[in-house]
Amino acid sequence: xxxxxxxxxxxxxxxxxxxxxxxxxxxxxxxxxxxxxxxxxxxxxxxxxxxxxxxxxxxxxxxxxxxxxxxxxxxxxxxxxxxxxxxxxxxxxxxxxxxxxxxxxxxxxxxxxxxxxxxxxxxxxxxxxxxxxxxxxxxxxxxxxxxxxxxxxxxxxxxxxxxxxxxxxxxxxxxxxxxxxxxxxxxxxxxxxxxxxxxxxxxxxxxxxxxxxxxxxxxxxxxxxxxxxxxxxxxxxxxxxxxxxxxxxxxxxxxxxxxxxxxxxxxxxxxxxxxxxxxxxxxxxxxxxxxxxxxxxxxxxxxxxxxxxxxxxxxxxxxxxxxxxxxxxxxxxxxxxxxxxxxxxxxxxxxxxxxxxxxxxxxxxxxx
Length: 368
What we know:
The chain is α/β, with parallel strands linked by helices. Among the domains are: 2-70, no CATH class; 211-367, no CATH class. The chain has 10 helices and 11 strands. The strands form 2 sheets. Strands 9-8-5-6-7-10-11 form a 7-stranded mixed beta sheet, with helices on both faces. It has a 4-stranded mixed beta sheet with strand order 1-4-3-2.
């Protein structure tokens, strides 16, 4: 895990150099001494040694990565995203074929430059196909890697001009490395996302239990987690907790280091997750609880639903056994919580509470 988390930190030099190469970012703008002093102050204030380790392994690398990406947060530009050509990883191979074919057929240094020997190649498209028969050209591939006056790109790979193709091998080499990094990032991001979500959910369960919340079924002792409705599975939430006379319906959102964290679409993606849960709670989850509490018989409240264990993918039929006192609570006491590992709030979702995990105890104090 630590090696994967450090992946983002180890690649900083590559990101800095690529930005600098295209005149978008000057690495000297990052005052290392100043940043180190900031980090030292953060660690001084943090008395918890375990959290200090967490800072060293996760937050500090992320701190530097985010500083780099804040300089250029526009995900529409190919210099970082390349999302439009990630549909098929074979593009990496194709760019490698073109680079290897033409890397030695043009000037390699300023001393070699001349009118007849420029630093790029200018060839007929048919010759390109003939030189590299391994590339299976189709309209989608041409659209995504050949730029022209009718198909402009902020980071062109190949450029069509007056019926011929302009090839800059070094440019292709840089692009190929960046695309590879992006694919690797996606893979690690997906893996860390699963691991972080599971770890974070366990942490939330632990915090809730330490603060006298009931999160286990009184009859089976199983955690109330990953609850979905029995028939249609139209919703799922992460944790059910009962605190005094409140039902807490909880969605957990973990955070893990990512070099693309500050890109605008990533922020928008997190906002949409809050919006989705807000709508689900209002239209489906809250009415589902109200209906089941209303029709429950005297004694323990038994709500048949589905559930799954942490890390599992398949759900099983499950019965929520709640104390009878819960049957008579006000419907306003069924509360939706969106608990995050990163302290970030989005306006416009007043029917749920957005809470940073470190503020759970304070929130529960207000319910006493």
